Write the structure tokens for this entry.
Amino acid sequence: MKYNREFSNFKNDYIFAKLKKTAEEMKRQGKEVVDLGVGDLSLPLFPVAVEEMIKSVKELGEKRSFTGYPPAEGLLSLREKISLDYGDLGISPSEIFISDGAKSDVGNLLDLFGTGISVLVPTPAYPAYAEANLFAGNKVTFLPCFKEDDFIPIPPVGKIFDVIYLCSPNNPTGSAFDKRTLSRWINYALSTGAVVLYDGAYCDFASENEVKSVYEIKNAEYCAVEIRSFSKSFGFTGVRCGYCVIPETLGEYNRLWKRRLSFRFNGVSVISQKGAEAYFSEEGRAAVKKRINYYKNNAEIIKIALKKKNLWYNNSCSSPYVFAKTPEGFSSEEFCDRAIKKFGIVLTPGNSFGEGGEGFFRISAFPERDKILKAVEITDKY
Ligand code: PLP
């Protein structure tokens, strides 16, 4: 039997699956587990999204309003709303492609470049960037980011890459670009001929002085693809809907992506897309704002607890994650292992986000407030 040899590069379980398994095992043993590890959500969908999806199901169930396959690039009504949301940045619906989420896009977009390309991944980073590229047979170079720079990546002078992944606000560090630092990357990409895959899955968490869209940076439309998701701020991790922007100014890529979709994709569920449209309603926007504040307040509670324990943390206010330093003498995995075995608290080891993450751990602020308070109560006892 013939199988894809690239799988042999993937020795370990995908880290988040591994964490889930450990937590489940603990629960099976009857132990209380507070899971602050995996970045999934626990709060339900907003009523406005539910209503739109129910409406959509009903329309599909009626002969007169039934529709079949949606366009591969996404419903025009959703793309128009996204385009309007970009406002003065001037992104047209023809530059927007709806997907089933950002994870698919960060890997699938590699089809635009062919195999064997050189890719730069600043770390710590969302693991899917490196894994998708290793699987595609690309050469991945990691650029470690440092606590001393607030984990903001700095362009490596004198080196050339075909593709650069940037993520802001960043998972796991929470750091976000301001205009000045992101301009350095855009200028670097333009001068070296690289394409930036800009992951804005957490763009709704960006603070006022930070960049929300890469296209706020001059000339980014000549070198950057933006990836976004309805997952984290609109509660769509289970529904699945996201999008990417491939500007027409970015050479052939816009046309090539359309071509690629025509033989690889039959579009995102109409129901999901109709639900996603509710994000742009007044009610949707207000709900998103409120929930982001809720997550950010969770993060602040976590930070106070870390401060009490004299543990360093990245003081970004733009993220549903807190990235913290392990106590002296502990590696990331040793500390997280101790946290789950001794306290029943699941954390994510920093090294699972690449070499730049060793010596750190990530705490998710997505769980409900009572879980966050429970974790604080447990650690307060020690
Ligand atoms: N990008 C980053 C940085 C993420 O952290 C995640 C999910 O955790 C994703 C993309 C995937 O998001 P989606 O649910 O849209 O696939």
About this structure: The mean pLDDT is 94. The CA atoms of residues 95 and 112 lie 15 Å apart. The longest helix spans residues 282-308. The chain is about 35% helix and 15% strand.
